[in-house]
Amino acid sequence: MTSQTLELRPVDVTNYARIIALKTAPEQEIYVASNAKALAEAAYVAGQEVAGAWLGDQPVGLATWGPYYVDDDYLGSPEEGSGILEHVMIAAPFQGRGLGRRLVALASQRILARPGCRRAVLAVHETNTMARALYASLGYRQFGVDRDGDPLMELLGGANPEP
Amino acid sequence: MTRSQDETTLPKVTLCAVDLDNYVRVMRLEVAPAQTDFLSLNGSRFPNEWALAESAYLPGFTPRAVCLAATIVGLVVWGPYHLDYDYHVPQEPGVWILDHVMIDAGQQGKGLGAAAVLAAIPEIFAIPECRRLVLSYANENERAGELYARLGFRPCGCDHEGAPMMELLRP
Fold first, then answer.
1. Contact check, Cβ <8 Å, A37/B41
2. Residue A28 vs residues A34, A95, A163, B57, B168: alpha-carbon distances, Å
3. What is the pLDDT of residues B5-46, one digit of tens each?
């Protein structure tokens, strides 16, 4: 398995149940929504994209991203030129080997490849220092806080994070 | 078909589309701790997250919010019935399944579950090809079996996981 590379694949009728069944580590549940919630949200918020993270035949995680609605105001208009990394998770048994970093890098590339997109943004919990360090290592920089006071980070187009 | 449930005493509910405006409220509905094993495969207090995600991927699956006046109190989902829930094989001809029936913990005990199922039945039988409606419920959930029997469903065996199934034929 170590020789296999993390890949993004579509979520579809043949694999959605395996993606939903993936669980993060218990101590991370305060930071990460369930995959079911993330997939349901993607079904209702226009423009959201989802991708399963796979090692060979094994699903190991999920990322979802889409238009950036400031303060999650999905009934308003998204901010032009920005895309948000909405949800990213690696299942507990597969953590600790750099897969999360690669998943964020791949998803960030996909966000920046969206038409007209100049920056990828994300919100991270203030206390989630591991995640903040991971995002920083890929070039994300804090540019503000959301309505809950949690840091907002951005990665500008052209930065091209190395997976 | 005999229905002994007195429909006139049930609360009046309507079934509404789940959409961008209400999906968050639907997902936040919680079942009582004792019911988590009845409705979700993963013991979550929020089984509607799973049900809405599944509805996004299974062709023909239809989620409907259960509304009591302007308040969303539950979720029902139905869709084409595939034997053993194997979505790689074709649908059983003419058969639909009531896949998910959920009433918020704080709203239970008022007959809302029965009212929601009674509201769903005519919508499901309005599908021209639908001749038979089936459902399954958790073995331990005896109250569900009694409720569906009062609404006219009859036992029709067990699913491949051993859960009791019931059926209602098109009137």
1. no
2. 11, 12, 23, 27, 44
3. 566 789 999 999 999 999 999 999 998 877 777 776 566 788
Residue A44 has its nearest CB partner, among B20, B42, B44, at B20
Q: What is the pLDDT of residues B76-96, one digit of tens each?
A: 999 999 998 888 889 999 999
Which pLDDT does position B5 carry in this prediction?
Answer: 52
Sign of CA dihedral A49, A52, A56, A57: negative
- β-strands A79-90, A119-123 pairing: parallel
User: What are the boundaries of each domain within chain B?
Assistant: 7-169
For the domain made up of A6-120, give the CATH fold: Aminopeptidase (3.40.630)
Cβ of B84 under 8 Å from any chain A Cβ? Answer: no
Contacts of A50 (CB under 8 A, 6+ apart): A10, A11, A38, A39, A42, A62, A63, A64
pLDDT band at B132 (very low <50, low <70, confident <90, very high): very high
pTM for this prediction = 0.90
Alpha-carbon distances of B5 from A119, B117, B170, rounded to whole Å: 58, 12, 18
Q: Tell which A residues from 17 to 36 touch B, by Cβ distance under 8 Å.
A: 17, 20-21, 23, 34-36
Architecture in CATH of B7-169:
3-Layer(aba) Sandwich (3.40)
Q: Which two tokens stand for residue A46?
A: 């226009």
A24-33, B76-85, B153-162: which has the minimum mean pLDDT?
A: A24-33
List of residues 6+ apart from B132 with CB closer than 8 A: B94, B95, B96, B167, B168, B169, B170
| Domain chopping of chain A, boundaries | 6-120
> A155 φ, ψ to 5°?
-125, 120
In angstroms, the CA B65 to CA B130 distance is 21
Contact list, B46 vs chain A (CB under 8 Å): 34, 37
**What SS3 class is residue B57?**
helix
Q: Name which of B16, B39, B52 to mutate to probe chain A: the one with the most chain A Cβ atoms within 10 A of its Cβ.
A: B52
